[in-house]
Write a structure and sequence with these properties.
By secondary structure, the chain is mainly beta. It is built from no helices and 10 strands. It has a 4-stranded antiparallel sheet, with no helix packed on it.
Length: 104
């Protein structure tokens, strides 16, 4: 059984026991999170596609950790103009472990 869920503007194909990295969610480590925006559900070869979401379906997950990615250097330069700007960026993310997929 697997499902396609939407969170943080992205879509993820998940099954029970999977560990995924999603955009930052406001939850502490060890807390339970329900993802209600289920776009597609497949169990025993039977596929249910939502319009836009599958009614009554949800995916339960546990927050493993809150973390940030490695530093990404942002460098801008315009040649022959003596223009150089150096910045950096670290994106926050949440690691989830999928505990259950529930249909209606």
């Amino acid at each position: 059984m697997f499902a396609v869920v939407k969170t943080g503007g992205k879509q993820y194909k998940v099954a029970q026991g999977d560990i995924i990295q999603v955009e930052k969610l406001d939850a502490e480590s060890g807390k339970k999170v329900d993802l209600a925006e289920v776009l597609m559900l497949c169990e025993d070869g039977k596929v249910t596609v939502g319009a836009p979401f599958v009614a009554g379906a949800k995916v339960s997950a546990e927050v493993v950790e809150q973390a940030r990615t490695a530093k990404l250097i942002v460098f801008k330069k315009r040649r022959r103009q003596n223009y150089r700007r150096k910045n950096h960026h670290r994106q926050a993310f949440t690691v989830l472990k999928i505990t259950a997929i529930k249909a209606k």
